[in-house]
From TrEMBL:
CDD domains: MFS. This is MFS transporter, YQGE family, putative transporter. The chain crosses the membrane at residues 20-41, 53-74, 81-98, 104-123, 144-165, 180-202, 223-244, 256-276, 283-303, 309-334, 355-374, 380-399. InterPro entries: MFS (IPR011701), MFS_trans_sf (IPR036259). GO terms for molecular function: transmembrane transporter activity.
């Protein structure tokens, strides 16, 4: 523990530090994408189903772009692909704001562009982290990364929420929409700046080899099971806070303030966990994150009012980064081991993992839409989260089995 406690920025290469700086700049964009695009759709359509259709379009575009990215890596510099991913998020928002009405066709088109953005961004980011960090530094890397993200989750929602509701002379729908367009322009500037900074680093592309496989080691089967369960919550957890806040508060100002409450505590927790935790603590950290997510969903279902929404968002903002600081290092360590055992391109595992997430996202979004169809949107907002949170608790058992198998493989190789 004492040795790991001394891990700091000095343990990262120059290129890793540039990647961290790039992610810090882009972290100012992510809360806008996560929160305010959904609230924009809700404000202009008042239809949670349209928010879900937009989210499904995003989640469909991601794995398709992951697959295309595998081919592009053979001919296009990884820095260009990663930068394009960031820039496309701005393009998607510009397109969304240019729509005369929130139609399903427009939503799907904007969602697919955003999905392409996420696909290029995350496919290449996952590989870049894998290539520039080691297992012992990844807890600190993700602790630092999620610290920046949660910090911007404090700053950005408050500023944008205040600006949209108080930064203009009128709070009419058209006035607020004009505010959204200005926010979109600022987002575009941040994506350009992040892209420029990233190009100061030096990064090697994955080996020019086959990256599409359908049969993997049994250890990877456990990783895919975790991916499906993780994807369940991702199916609509990104847009759920915005939908709940707009339902009970109908104010972007309240949305921004609520998002910031839990994020302050989460930011401090992430920095401490990343600095002091070691690989052996990942199962405990992962379990705590899942329990927080269950409690967040439980209180939302039990109360389903403005107070319940505040508690839900507070606990969720703590749960998500705690889960990430454990999940991603587990995933990358498995890739480290299996890429050597099976002699495969690391990107083949990143791609396959994304399809596992996609299956989970479809099931999660399908749960919401199914309840909304056979019941109503309020039932879906109230019960779908709890159903998924209960199922996700299975990840604790699967993670334990995975880590036990991983340990046996490492001992065998040693």
């Amino acid at each position: 523990m004492e040795k790991l406690a001394r891990i700091g920025l000095k343990d990262f290469s120059r290129s890793t530090k540039i990647l961290i700086l790039t992610n810090l700049i882009y972290a100012f964009v992510l809360p806008v994408i996560d929160i305010f695009v959904a609230s924009y759709i809700m404000r202009n359509s008042n239809d949670p189903s349209k928010v879900m259709m937009y989210q499904l379009a995003i989640y469909t575009g991601i794995p398709i772009t992951f697959f295309i990215n595998g081919f592009l890596l053979n001919t296009v510099n990884i820095k260009k692909l990663f930068s394009l991913g960031m820039l496309l998020s701005g393009v998607s928002m510009v397109y969304m704001m240019s729509l005369d009405e929130i139609s399903y066709t427009g939503l799907i088109s904007a969602g697919l562009i955003m999905g392409m953005s996420f696909g290029l961004y995350w496919a290449n980011r996952d590989y870049l982290v894998l290539a520039t960090t080691t297992d012992k530094t990844r807890n600190f890397y993700y602790g630092l990364d999620t610290f920046f993200y949660t910090l911007t989750a404090v700053i950005v929602p408050i500023i944008i929420g205040w600006y949209l509701m108080n930064g203009s002379d009128s709070t009419t729908n058209e006035s607020v929409n004009s505010g959204y367009r200005i926010v979109t322009g600022v987002v575009f500037i941040f994506t350009i700046f992040a892209s420029i900074v990233f190009h100061f680093g030096d990064y090697e592309k994955p080996r020019n080899e086959k990256f599409l496989y359908f049969k993997f080691h049994k250890l990877w089967t456990k990783m895919l099971q975790m991916a499906v369960l993780k994807g369940l919550a991702q199916g609509f957890i990104v847009t759920a806070p915005a939908m709940l806040m707009m339902k009970f508060f109908a104010s972007e100002g309240a949305l921004g303030t609520a998002q910031s409450v839990g994020a302050i505590i989460a930011a401090v927790i992430m920095l401490i966990l990343g600095k002091l935790s070691s690989p052996k603590h990942r199962l405990v950290i992962f379990s705590i994150g899942l329990i927080f997510f269950f409690l967040a969903s439980f209180f939302n279902t039990l109360m389903f009012n403005s107070t319940g929404v505040i508690i839900f968002i507070f606990l969720l903002l703590i749960a998500r980064p705690i889960l990430d600081i454990a999940y991603f290092p587990i995933q990358l360590k498995v890739i480290d081991i299996l890429s050597v055992i099976e002699n495969r391109n690391e990107f083949s595992y990143i791609l396959n993992h994304e399809f596992g997430l996609y299956v989970g996202r479809l099931l999660g979004a399908g749960t919401f839409l199914g309840i909304a169809y056979f019941g109503n949107a309020d039932d879906a907002l109230r019960y779908a989260l709890l159903i998924i949170a209960v199922i996700q608790l299975l990840s604790i058992l699967i993670a334990k089995q995975l880590l036990d198998q991983q340990s046996k493989l490492e001992n065998k190789d040693a």
